[in-house]
Amino acid sequence: MNDASSSELFKPSIDVIEQANVPEYQALYDYSVNNREGFWAEQAETLGWYKKWDKVLDESKAPFYQWFTGGKTNIVHNAIDRHLTNANRNKMAIIWEGENGQVRNYSYNGLNREVSQFANVLKSMGVEKGDVVTIYMPQIPELIFAMLACAKIGAIHSVVYGGFSTDALASRIEDAHSRVLITADGGWRRGKQIDLKTIADNAMKRSPTIEVCICVKNNDLEVEMEATRDFWYHDLIALPIASPKCETEQLDAEDPLFILYTSGTTGSPKGMLHTHGGYSVYTSTTHRMAFDIKPEDRWWCAADPGWITGHSYIVYGPLINGATIMLYEGAPNYPYPNRWWQIIEKYGINILYTSPTAIRGLMRFGDRWPKKHDLSSLRLLGSVGEPINPEAWKWYHQVIGNGNCPIIDTWWQTETGGLMICPLPVTPLKPGSATKPFFGNEITIVDDEGREVAANEEGKLIINNPWPGMARTIFKDDERYKALYWNEVDGKWRYLAGDSAKKDDDGYIWVIGRMDEVLKVSGYRLGTAEIESALVSHPQVTEAAAIGLPHELKGNAIHTYAILAQGVAGSEELALELREHVAREMGRIAMPEDVTFVDALPKTRSGKIMRRVLKARALGQDEGDLSTLEE
Ligand code: ATP
Ligand code: MG
Questions:
Q1: Of 72, 112, 176, 304, which shows the fewest CB atoms inside 10 Å?
Q2: How many whole angstroms separate alpha carbon 208 and alpha carbon 191?
Q3: 480: CA distance to ligand 2 center in Å?
Q4: In DSSP terms, which residues pair with 231 in a beta bridge?
Q5: Whole-prediction pTM value?
Q6: Which GO terms describe its biological process (predicted)?
Q7: Residues in Cβ contact with 488 at an 8 Å cutoff, skipping those fewer than 6 apart
Q8: Ligand 1 atom at minimum distance from 434 CA
Q9: What number does the ligand 1 atom closest to the CA of 261 have?
């Protein structure tokens, strides 16, 4: 077996250490877990509150924990209002570039005007505190305005990723009983227009709750507008009701902010509910400490705002921290595979945060594309969404970061609201490990009986404590939330993440993958991600998936799928070579039964491999909920 813990250690440079927002991990970590409420209260003090909280943590309804109860706030108070009274007022809040090269910029002052106008439009449409507004938009500034406008007036937003189609949108509208839908005529992807309004029309036919549809004009698509239901946004903001002044609603810390559905990698998506107070504190603290954000930084989280990564680290965390955020609507390789690198050079981006799948996708085109550009503005690089295989980690570190930028590999979930396991810039790194728990969090790896396993043994990842950014429930389904995630052991509640992981001798955590993606082969437990990583370490493979299928003797047998590098043809010899390569890397026990060469893998639209779909196909079974499958 390859022993992950023995892999190389990448130490931060003196520069990184000298300018780090948090210069040392261990002492602050010890303090944060021994004085959890004190630590979080100190972080909360850095934000503005209309009224200070009475209690930092209320455990009386555990596992339905509440944070900063009695406090009055609104996330918009911290994300926008506070900046209007300080030097950030005229600072750039959002830089947006469209796929066709169009650019729009907004200062914090400008952002406030846009959000206030949008909020007044929503009010004029009868939207009230507590209403759920569904947002289905391309990656344009209006998507962010709409989210913030909802929050500003106390409405709950439910953002549905603009890459989804009718089914996914309709089922989320139904689940949320939304009365108002915000959309756009269309979006851009690879030079083609995506017909969002038409998809929205079809979804609305199935969702009778929608009474009002507000449509932003982003393209020149012909769309149908239903006279009493559909309104052009540009018509509405031209009316006197859309004044650029709007009071921010003073809310309870525990008032709901948004619903967001999980990616649906393992089953049907769950509508996680997050609240104003704790989420503000958690996203801004994690963003400031782990990503070391500085006032002069230009921050680019290249996720879509429609995922939790976008909610927490495009919109809320960075705006609360007064950062300048980059937003790009379009494909990473359009018109050429240097598009992202061009953006980094053009705007002087300092921190890039993206996913392993995006990194592998761009790596496939070779070094010559990034090498065309001056990427020296980059200071830190981030990764999220899946375990990052060491091959991709090293490419990201060496070719994109010129060996100077720490890789902040962050493990977290829609449910957790923000980073849970991640290095600080000063943490020595091991490629493929998200390293250590973020402050305040105690994370252990346990066996089926709930006992902590020994170092280097694989088990279930659990979080032993509440944290401010945690989801409060599954929307309208407290029972399911409690049953799915929480376990009571000796009177203490533990959060079960659903992932399997191990801790090495240095206490570094290696997330292996989802619990149901750990294969038991001849009595050994193997993670699909490890097998995939071994395959991808072969120079001719760029993407891979591994699944287990029932086998009479072994219990499970490993079957794999591989996408080959550009110009490489699949053959029986290559399949054998790849199987032997995995056996060499991981041990004979992990040698796959076969390798199937494919052009694409079934992925969620956030880029995660849906192994359950491969498995169902291989077994000729029903493929289950496919609403989040990429086309
Ligand atoms: P669903 O819960 O609907 O099946 P999902 O788990 O993919 O979908 P998300 O909340 O978007 O939905 O993803 C969280 C999961 O992504 C984690 O539980 C973990 O499996 C994986 N993940 C995220 N970041 C990392 C990381 N840095 N390293 C390893 N795994 C990660
Ligand atoms: Mg999940």
A1: 72
A2: 33
A3: 14
A4: 214
A5: 0.92
A6: acetyl-CoA biosynthetic process from acetate
A7: 63, 494
A8: 27
A9: 3
